[in-house]
Design goal:
The complex is a heterotetramer, with two copies of chain A and two copies of chain C. By secondary structure, chain A is an all-alpha fold. In chain A, 79% of the residues lie in helices and 0% in strands. Chain A is built from twelve helices and no strands. Chain A starts with a helix and ends in a 10-residue tail after the last helix. By secondary structure, chain C is of the alpha+beta class. Helix content of chain C is 24%, strand content 30%. Chain C has nine helices and 20 strands. Chain C has a six-stranded mixed beta sheet with strand order 6-7-8-3-9-10, with helices on both faces. Chain C has a five-stranded antiparallel beta sheet with strand order 13-12-11-14-20, with no helix packed on it. In chain C, α2 packs across α3 (116-129). Classes of the chains: A mainly alpha, C alpha+beta. The interface between B and D is medium-sized, with 18 and 23 residues. Chains A, B: It is found in: Cell membrane.
Amino acid sequence: MKNTRISLFLVLPAIIISFAFFLLPIVQLFKVSVVEGNGISYWNILTQPMYLKSLLSTVGLSTFVTFVSLVIATITGLFLTRYEFWGKQVLIAMLSFPLAFPGVVIGFFVIMLAGRQGLFAQIGLALVGERWMFAYSMAGLFLGYLYFSIPRVVLTVMGAAEKLDQNLIEAGRSLGASRWQIFCDVTVPTLRPGLISSGSICFATSMGAFGTAFTLATNINVLPMTIYTEFTLNANFAMAAALSLILGLVTWVCLGIAKRQGAASVGMGG
Amino acid sequence: MKNTRISLFLVLPAIIISFAFFLLPIVQLFKVSVVEGNGISYWNILTQPMYLKSLLSTVGLSTFVTFVSLVIATITGLFLTRYEFWGKQVLIAMLSFPLAFPGVVIGFFVIMLAGRQGLFAQIGLALVGERWMFAYSMAGLFLGYLYFSIPRVVLTVMGAAEKLDQNLIEAGRSLGASRWQIFCDVTVPTLRPGLISSGSICFATSMGAFGTAFTLATNINVLPMTIYTEFTLNANFAMAAALSLILGLVTWVCLGIAKRQGAASVGMGG
Amino acid sequence: MTDKTNSVEITLKNITKTFSDGTLALKPTDLTIKAEEILVLLGPSGCGKTTTLRLIAGLEFADSNGGSINFGDKNVTELPIEKRKVGMVFQSYALFPNMNVSENIVYGLKVRGIDTAVIDHKLAEMLKMFDLEKYAKRGVHQLSGGQRQRVALARAIITEPDVLLLDEPLSALDALLKARLRGDIRTLLKSLGITAVYVTHDQEEAMAMGDRIAVLDHGEIAQIGSAKEIYLQPKNAFVADFIGQMNRFEGNVIDAQLVLNTGKKIPLSSEALASSNANETLSMMLRPEDIRLTKVTDEQHALTGIVSSSVFLGDRTRVTLEKVQKEGKVIVDCFQRIEYPSGQIVALSFESKHLIPLQG
Amino acid sequence: MTDKTNSVEITLKNITKTFSDGTLALKPTDLTIKAEEILVLLGPSGCGKTTTLRLIAGLEFADSNGGSINFGDKNVTELPIEKRKVGMVFQSYALFPNMNVSENIVYGLKVRGIDTAVIDHKLAEMLKMFDLEKYAKRGVHQLSGGQRQRVALARAIITEPDVLLLDEPLSALDALLKARLRGDIRTLLKSLGITAVYVTHDQEEAMAMGDRIAVLDHGEIAQIGSAKEIYLQPKNAFVADFIGQMNRFEGNVIDAQLVLNTGKKIPLSSEALASSNANETLSMMLRPEDIRLTKVTDEQHALTGIVSSSVFLGDRTRVTLEKVQKEGKVIVDCFQRIEYPSGQIVALSFESKHLIPLQG
């Protein structure tokens, strides 16, 4: 018993100091955003179109990506869980391929699909004699974000669907419910925590995606790129700090929601 | 029964086509790496010092970061699980702060700590009259990677340690084992899957980290930066593709290991 | 709900079930469950009892070899569960976790689009019947195991199904609650007058619950009959061992007696003798509670054994005897709170009518 | 290991345990466990039985109010489990998942740095004793519940502890295996001659296992004694209800009889009368197996009831009677395979010595 108390008093300060180091940059960030910006950085974000547009378009893009990912992934995930067919295991293993590439490479993927020499350009050329190109637009960004979001949600939905108690569905059927009634009343509520959790992570990842956006060098300034530009090129530290804190806050809330719904620890990293 | 079969035949092709789209870029990448590189891209990686150095330094850095993260995080995680003290819940909540920031912002953190105006510079100036600066070196990169790796591993270790059956430890004690023997024979083996899993993810994240490296604009060319440079600036598509595939393969294997050890679906994204 | 429902007779004719992996889960089976009867399907795991229940429910479909399942006059062989008018109660309760108690109970009425006033009336009736009024608005996760079971039952019978199917409904509960609820459920089923099929692996539960019991073994019905028939006249060793404790004696028939391998002798009844030949090897079974232990008076002729342990279990003393036969022990249940010290030699006596000949 | 170990007497004097949240888990308790005795701590969850075991183990420490725990002459009150020489068997088995069967069994010797040859010799002995030779190299996850339990026992006794502590070691197993293993474990403990403390919430297991049983209730020992003492002379209603089924009769003492609220009369024994006053309200308890049912011959004077249900349970028929008292039912276990149709009026008879006066 006494040993325990001694080790507690020895280790605790060490841990608190380490934590302080963890927090220091965030505190510093806040200081910079307020002091160097004369307290008007946050006001500027709301009033200057450039920043506001960056914030809103990032939020909009992320929301849309999340929504589309959830719909596609739920259908696919339920389908993959419920039916057995030849090659299913290979298909599922392939699903994790996109997760293995960093944002930069995913940017290239979009260029290969929708760039000047891309697949869509070839198809367009063959069909209507005109290259279909959208790699460097909002659509390209959307495609790239979908690419790394869908597999993540599909795998979560599959995990949740496998845990779905078949007796619940059978109970619903014995009570005379139709397939659609069971889907709405039993399946979806059971999947809900998984959907909220993976949706939150999907949203947070999209909000913080830098590599993809940077590679596509798009005209749409998503938030992480704006932060980079302000800090490195414009040396507008206060604005970069304010935007970073807003982005961090949004992501932190999303991760908190995901964790509440039972997701393992996840983070943005890189 | 018949309905099932019809829906299977309707949905299956749709899903296979979607999967094809998922795979297409990867196949394309492989084609580019082999065809455009005249088949010697992979050979070049091994023989040209610039590429080999990039590959080896990325692997080395990631390995070291993973190792240090595991050691620090295991001690911290076990400590936080085992002892109750005032403010513990706040400390744990603070742990997830670093996970909320994208790589770009974490790069800034390193600059704020170890840059020209950073904390270490101030301390050095006060102590020895000389600015301590290492933000733009391997050490700075190491610090940044640690910053986003440690919280992730700590949270995993805490999750695993909470599930640790206290009876196992009590059984060991009843058999006369010392604290250290129990740590080695009972605690560590129980945590092992969690450590392997979060270590793998930590390694994969470090391998693919772009934002942090790019912000620090370091002289060490880590792999994602090399890929970016080859593709965008040097237009050496074959080399970029070959490096991407190698990076993807390494990451995919790591994620596979993590998943085998029971991690939820994770990915690089962004 | 206070009226008796229209109960139906269930008839299975030549029903077979092969799983997709080729396992024969149910060998060709004929089974009739009378209207208003509670039939218990009893057996160890993997014996086919749950498969039989799921075939009756319409959750599985029988092999297409001409077999049929009828509910009364109606052939339901091809009908899925939605169209069979069955109520089901699952071992896991299978309550909808996103609905509260009331929402769970009325779900079967709601999906049918029944009028709200009718639903409310029936709900009130159910809540009262199952003593759940206090819990009407509670989430199902806040309920105890016994309360969940009552909600599951209420949900199953509110739609007034023709048949009620119960799949080990009590096995998740503790022993005391189990013993109480099985009486309640039987009373409920009898008052509803509903035809019910009840699956369990617990022999005491089966005897307490069923009008008849079908003991299943390896995908076929080993015996079907009342609890008494099955306990007192088990058709084979499997049934005898599965329903309660059983002693077995093996020997040769010599001079109207069964001579064991220790040379000890058991007198046989005239029925047993009539169906066996002299010198034939014969196995006889005997329940522990049918044996009485007495002092050894005539060591030469008596059937004796040595007490190896004697355990007081409250309502009985369970005495284990050695050396009656060369191998195996004989278990005796004594209801007269007497002690038997280990090592004591005792004589076994019993009425020869209690000896059960082992067939097959 | 074939020799008897040096077993010790365990003495708890004025031991109290308060949890950090302020709950009093164990009220001041004195308890002596004799050398070589198997003492069973029996009670519902939260009664303090596991806390008592953990205090004896040294996994918890008693409140510092002068109480003491002795193993023989040695005061171990302040010693942690590592230094108490106790073997423990847990409900969850607590086998080390990263070690195989042999590694688990020898762990206690290995950490002590015992010579390899000695370890190998003892391991072989244990594997043989517990019939685990075939599984020596298996991972513990490949074992059945019963096998895991045997490994846990082997691991606990290989170090030859002074005391063996078992915390519900059978409660994770199914009923049949449980019944078999409890006999095996008792035989083992007796052959080792080790002092053992056995925690369970199962009364039949307690009676089959213990030399003495301590029934705990709300952090104190309600009664301690042999199975027979506790079953036949329960000190209070809690003990009576916890050990087996019990009927309760309440009434006033009039003319040497207990007059129930239905006016029916129960004759009292002279002992019961001696300790009660006329007109006093008295509660008497009676076991279901102590009641005999007979035909009503003298309706005026007999104690009668109406059969509400009669369930054949194999070795007994459990008859439930109504209307003996105004409230509650009387349960009777009949061992003479007789049927009692519902609604029949029957007379209850019993020897007055079987009536247990309810105290407290």
